[in-house]
Amino acid sequence: MIYNIFFIHKGRGLNLLQHSFSGSKLDEDLVSGFISALISFIDALQPPTEDYQQEKLIRTVDRGDFKILIETGETVMGILFVNIEKVEVRKKLREIIKQFEQKFKLKDWAGTIEVDKYESFKEIIFKKFATEIIQISDVPNLTPFVNEFFKTHDELDLLGELNLSAGLLELLMRIDGTSDVQEIANRLECPVEEAIEKIGYLFELGDFITIESPVNETDIYVLTPEAMPVFRMNTYERETIVNLFGSDGIDILLNIDSSRSVQGIQKKTNIDLEKIKEVLRFSSMEQLIKRVRVHPIIRESVDLATITFDKELSSIFKKIMGLCDGNHSLREIAKNLNVPIPVITGFLVTLGDHVEWSKK
Question: Are residues 199 and 143 in the same domain?
């Protein structure tokens, strides 16, 4: 999870642009002053030489519950507040600093902060960090504000000038409170990355949508690399799980193996199902786990007469088979046909080797 990003001019120590991903803004003068003071303190301990720039040695400030990532360009220092330090996030920070410097040519900066000029850079921020905010298994929900907005505004008020705005109205029409990001992308027939960027943009507007990470009994999860510290003694991540959920939290995460469902974890551990869901929701939000999407594939024709003589049931099975093409998850098939997942899985199990299972 990422919280705030700052672009600070190295020479002046002034904040040029900041953005809050969490809705909670930090005092920009406090942040820039803290970073400048930190660099000055390190300089006093060990003055920089011609071989290196001192600020490049300060890359992380770790408080346990959050971390401050620091990357420097030629004229700008990027400060990113995160809960977990990830290589790809630091890489994105480094890249976006270069983009910022190239766009605004700060080598010739005269010292005037043009707020509107720098604000236009936020579209690039949305695109760069969208996947750190929105996951493909997240379910967006429209807020009551949407209807109120369109009573007094037209679509141009929503679209604005950002490139991300194109197609937002169509996207809003696909948000039904039950479809996840991947399913919405499928309906829009667009790459999931594009859907994530647009949903992230709507979320950043603050009033149009909320994001939920629902946990269903049939869901399957896999651990992310960020979860590994949970299983080591005396780490902040482990202490957090234990403090919030006790030893049950560790047991639940230990039983995530990319094949066992939430219901399977409950049977294995005998832990209350609602507590398991609570642990998984928290772990998903903290990006310790991610949901596995199971896509069934039927590559050979199947004679349904060998399975059932019931015409109505045969019709349902035929529709299920039509969607088992590797492009639809079990969840999508169940939702499209209004058929419970256990019915679908039960049917597919009877097909045996005719079915392949793809996990994405």
Answer: yes
Q: Of 256, 251, 246, 243, whose CA–CA distance to 284 is shortest?
A: 256
Give the domain range for residue 58. Answer: 2-120
Full-model pTM: 0.71
CA–CA distance, 282 with 279 (Å, rounded to integer)? 5
User: Do 311 and 346 fall within a single domain?
Assistant: yes
* Residue 148 structure tokens: 């109120």
pLDDT digits (tens, 9 = 90+) for 224-264: 988 999 999 988 889 999 999 999 999 999 999 988 889 89
In a domain, 10, yes or no: yes
CA angle 135, 198, 332 (to 5 degrees): 50
Shared-domain flag, residues 310 and 232: no
* Co-location of 28 and 114 in the same domain: yes
pLDDT single digits (tens) 30-68 = 777 777 777 677 666 666 665 555 445 678 878 777 888
Q: How far apart are the first and last CA of the chain?
A: 22
Contact of 286 with 1, CB cutoff 8 Å: yes
